[in-house]
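Entry type: protein chain
Record version: 2
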Amino acid sequence: MNNGDTAWVLISAALVFVMTPAVALFYGGMVRSKNVLTTIMQSMFILGMVSVEFVLVGYTLAFGADVNGLIGDLSKVGLSGVGYNLVDGGTIPELAFVAFQCMFAALTPALITGAFAERMKFKGFALLMLLWAVFIYNPMAHWVWGGGFLAQLGALDFAGGLVIHILSGVSGLTICILLGKRRGYGKSAIVPHNIPMTVLGAAILWGGWFGFNAGSALGANELAANAFVVTQVAAAAGLLGWVLVEWIRSGKPTILGAVSGAIAGLVAITPAAGYVTVLPSVAIGLIGGGICYTAVAIVKERFGYDDSLDAFGVHGIGGMWGAIATGLWATTAVNPDGANGLFYGETNLFVAQVISIGVAVIFAVVGSTVLYKVVNALVVLRASDDEEITGLDLTEHGERGYNVGLFAGAPSFVGGESYAVKLFPSVSGSQS
């Protein structure tokens, strides 16, 4: 065991942990004020729920001994036998690796919530995300990182382009289409209620991403340093790419566009961070920002789906571009355990990346559709019109994010009694 490597992985795990509350803020600022707490609650609840799931069954399914290239065995259920033994071929104890991977497992379904924000009931949400973590995330993590068939094919995903971003983005798109559009979508303005909150969330995400990518080197070494630098460069380039395209198209650069572009650049570099040099990371970020803006501002409008907070446009599309870019610019000069991409004269990696993208997309669509149908048959997933009008903060959680004018103009249900009065019968007079 190397103390420095272990310390770096544990610090990185803590940085990745912070990313889930950061997603809560990032998404929370982009919804309407009546849904801010339910949006934040979804990310925070996933953080708790999936952490327990990962310890009980997730880790062994993702990283247990390979079974026919499809799934890990059950030898490590409840972290049985996991302790201070070193990760195979590494310098850190397996428990440190468990801590690091647990944060990835928790973050991924939190990203999905942006696609169906403001219209899913909490009970159905909790069951759907739990099943998604068990039956979709864990197998995909095994296929790519646990010695499964995509790893055997030669696919490379340094920190989660395939496993995290494509899988969450495409799953989010699938679920939001099945769930249906928000009430009034496309007919009336639905705008963010607190952009400074979103900027704060994005800034924390950017900082946490250094643990996300550089921590995936699993040591304090040259590979971590490379991943750290290309992460910063690609994020900065993604910010510039999004803003430039937005500025040219609409005539105004926006702060929401700037932080969205930074996230797009971070998503794009994630699968490539341990395989590419610095200069390609500029191109990866710039192109990532531009194509993600196009997906959000043009493609979504043309097809009319209600991906509330653009989980697919940023994570799905950005992840696909990042996986392709890895197949173009990867070089063994950065990582001898990797492979050379198309621009270095070899085609095998590029082909493996394209196949892996197809597998991730198909698995996300089919798996999410099946799970959605199963859960929707058991509990109601879609909020009613009255619940959506009132806001899920009150109807699902009995609280509001802002107390100023709490009950002023509270929407009424059938019978004329406002939900606020039902919830707080002691409130009377003008406040009701």
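Comment: Confidence is low (pLDDT under 50) at residues 406-421, 423-432.
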